[in-house]
Amino acid sequence: AETLANLVSNEDLTKGRLYPSLTKIREISYKIAVNVANTAFENHIAQVPCPEDLEKYIQESMFSPEYQTYV
What we know:
Blueprint: H1 2-6, H2 10-14, H3 25-42, H4 54-61
């Protein structure tokens, strides 16, 4: 919740938005995932070892909505 709140810009607030623009969903999701993972590792509640480069690991693990053309 803190990460999401910190990503709301002054422009969002000026436009009456309580959340960042949906056009930034991948960036927002990435930053939330990094902070959740960091918290889990810092509090020793993660059930897997911490990757050497956590941010890169999360980036590479994210779903990419790219599809092959079969026609």
